[in-house]
Amino acid sequence: MSVCVVGHSNPDTDSVAAAIAFANYLKATGTDAKATMQIGAADLNPESKVVLEKFGLAAPETMTDAGGKDVALVDFSDIGQAPANIGKANVVAIVDHHKIGDITTNSPIFFYAKPVGCTCTVLFEMYKNNNVALPKNIAGAMLCAILSDTVNFKSPTCTDADKAAVKELLGVAGVTDQDGLFMEMLKAKSSVAGVPIKDLIFRDYKDFDMNGKKVGIGQIELATLDQVADIRGDLFKAVEAVKAEGRHSVLFMLTDVVKEGTDLLVVSDEPAVIEKAFNGTIKGQSMWVDGMMSRKKQTVPPLQKAFGC
Ligand code: MG
Ligand code: MG
Ligand code: MG
Q1: Ligand 2 centroid, distance to 16 Cα (angstroms)
Q2: Is 103 within 8 Å of 80 (Cβ atoms)?
Q3: What is the pLDDT of residues 107-151, one digit of tens each?
Q4: How far is the CA of 138 from the centre of ligand 2 (A)?
Q5: DSSP 222-252
Q6: Looking at domain 197-306, which of 1.10.10.10, 3.10.310.20, 3.20.20.70, 3.40.50.300 is its CATH number?
Q7: pLDDT at 244 over 90
Q8: How far is the CA of 146 from the centre of ligand 3 (A)?
Q9: How many angstroms separate the alpha carbon of residue 82 from the centre of ligand 1?
Q10: What are the residue boundaries of the structural domains of the chain, listed by start?
Q11: Which residues surround ligand 1, an ion (CB under 5 A)?
């Protein structure tokens, strides 16, 4: 039985590229494996589509039920982000760059995680340290995953290991213009034309418990805020609707990746708490937070502090 390598639900480019890269690594080192993902190819996010097309890679096959299968996990280790019936699967390996999740195993497994910006950085080091040949097209996808997860090195999650991996992957993939490649991905990812407002709100959305209060935070990354000028009002109405479903606050991050900051749409029972968290003032519907790029590192921690978590 071949090992199904799978990334988290609602896969980003790292989950897709890491599944391809780790499946290839396993095959090259004597384990039958195939890349999979928890969605159909038609539902791939626009950025990942561009990446696979650019480097001539097939989309991983769909795998939504892990029951009875041998699986290897990449870019996550949480049950909540796993395929159905993960508890009835045989998890044989995990490669990741997040905190350890709640998946457990009955036997010892290959588990390799590092606090770096991207799973593909971890995989790059595995290829390198074990002298496994890295195909040009897979190197290209891994390169894109690192640029995506680290926002072209601008995210505070980016480490020297990510930069070193990118330097070498550029050479293997035959890419000379790193910033150009990133902008190409960013344009695909941030395209809002024709996308339903609800899809934009939930494209990258998470609920958090903040001292007993339910706080939702969504984010879209943009090449410029002008991209959403025409739909700002509709986005705000949609944020109000999500808040009305029983949340204390909903924040929606319109992140300008080039200016390196976020225009934060805020709907809250206690706007003053949000203002305190980010040391600013809500003007109309939003507040500009200079330097805010990462929900995980720059939005959640100050909020938790302000909510007294
Ligand atoms: Mg991911
Ligand atoms: Mg990742
Ligand atoms: Mg990500």
Answers
A1: 10
A2: no
A3: 999 999 999 999 999 999 999 999 999 999 999 999 999 999 999
A4: 16
A5: ES-GGGGGGGHHHHHHHHHHHHTTT-SEEEE
A6: 3.10.310.20
A7: yes
A8: 9
A9: 12
A10: 3-187, 197-306
A11: 12, 14-15, 75
| Residue 195 CA to ligand 1 centre (angstroms) | 22
When the pLDDT of each residue in the chain is averaged and rounded to a whole number, the result is 96
pLDDT band of residue 194 (cuts 50, 70, 90) is confident
| pLDDT attached to residue 224 | 87
Name the 3-class secondary structure at 25: helix
Which residue type is seen at 221?
E
- Mind listing the pLDDT tens digit for each residue in 142-183? 999 999 999 999 888 999 999 999 999 999 999 999 999 998
Distance CA 159, CA 171 (A): 19
- Report the separation in Å between the CA atom of 75 and the middle of ligand 1, taken as the mean of its atom positions: 5
Ligand 1 centre distance from Cα of residue 283 (Å): 33
Tokens 């036997």 sit at which residue? 107
Kindly give the distance from the C-alpha atom of residue 111 to the centroid of ligand 2, in angstroms, as a whole number: 16
- Cα(72) to centroid of ligand 3, in Å? 19
Distance of CA 79 from the midpoint of ligand 1 (Å): 14
Provide the β-strand partners of residue 220: 254
The contacts of residue 238 (CB under 8 Å, 6+ apart) are 197, 198, 200, 201
Residue 77 Cα, ligand 1 centroid: separation in angstroms?
Answer: 11
Asked if 3-187 and 197-306 have one fold, the answer is no
pLDDT classification of 298: cutoffs 50, 70, 90: very high
Looking at domain 3-187, which of 3.30.1950.10, 3.90.1640.10, 2.60.120.10, 3.30.420.40 is its CATH number? 3.90.1640.10
Nearest-ligand number for the alpha carbon of 123: 2
Instruction: For ligand 3, an ion, list residues with CB under 5 A.
Output: 12
Model-level pTM? 0.78
In the numeric block, the tokens 């971890």 are attached to: 122
